[in-house]
Design goal:
By secondary structure, the protein is mostly helical. 68% of the residues lie in helices and 0% in strands. The chain is globular, with a radius of gyration of 23 Å.
């Protein structure tokens, strides 16, 4: 569970930080091995880079490399935080007297970080290649022509739906847990709930009593239920639109 929860938490953060990763990659490749002033600066600063990429490459380009970025975050942070959590739970970070050992903590952190970085490195390389891809007028660095799926392929819709399924589950599970408990709570003679006053009260009580993990109880079952539903819904929607535009011309 430590591995899964750590990986999912990192994926949730990645959905919001990936645009910054795209900007960072472009700015770091700009002027590669060129003397200052000898090249055209397509990206003057972070904000200018956001505007330039959105204007020239399109807003979707700000999420380039999202699939490998999510896989990288899940693998690297799942291994890194999960391994450290196992070491802490197993008592390996404490001395015989029960006090926390800084040396053991540092060693466990270094080992976990090394394992995560080593296994995630190939995925990070693919992510970098995809995030560097840009229109010729704002291209920086070497331009790899990776193409995961052919244009208009059903696999594009399938991959996008799988990613969106993760986002939906991360955002909705706390409210799903609260609604399940609201529906299942005992009631008085007038039908009024005896445990929770409403949705917000159920969320707050769960968070205070059971912690953040309590709000994500059943997240695995939620994804395996909601994930296929989201995937199939978006997949069929995309294919129906494609058929409509193909045969309506």
């Amino acid at each position: 569970m430590d591995f899964v929860m750590s990986g999912l938490a990192a994926c949730g953060a990645c959905l919001f930080t990936n645009p910054l990763e795209v900007v960072k990659t472009r700015m770091q490749l700009q002027g590669e091995l060129r003397a200052p002033g000898s090249y055209k600066r397509h990206y003057r600063n972070v904000f200018h880079a956001f505007i330039t990429i959105g204007k020239v490459d399109g807003l979707a380009a700000l999420q380039k490399g999202l699939a490998p970025a999510l896989l990288y975050q899940f693998l690297m942070n799942g291994i890194r935080l999960g391994t450290y959590g196992l070491a802490e739970t197993g008592g390996y970070l404490h001395t015989a007297e029960g006090t926390l050992s800084p040396v053991r903590s540092a060693a466990a952190g270094a080992m976990a970080g090394t394992m995560g970085a080593y296994l995630g490195s190939p995925i990070y390389m693919v992510k970098t290649h995809l995030q560097a891809q840009a229109a010729s007028e704002i291209a920086v660095g070497h331009q790899y022509k990776h193409q995961i799926f052919p244009p208009q392929s059903w696999k594009v819709a399938l991959a996008a739906a799988m990613v969106s399924g993760i986002a939906v589950v991360l955002a909705m599970t706390p409210f799903d847990v609260a609604s399940t408990r609201l529906y299942n709570q005992p009631t008085d003679s007038r039908g009024k709930g005896l445990k929770y006053r409403g949705m917000l009260d159920a969320v707050l009580q769960t968070a205070r009593t059971e912690g953040i993990f309590g709000m994500y109880k059943g997240i695995g079952a939620s994804y395996f239920r909601l994930g296929p539903h989201t995937i199939l819904s978006l997949f069929f929607w995309d294919q129906l639109r494609l058929l409509y535009y193909t045969y309506s011309k």
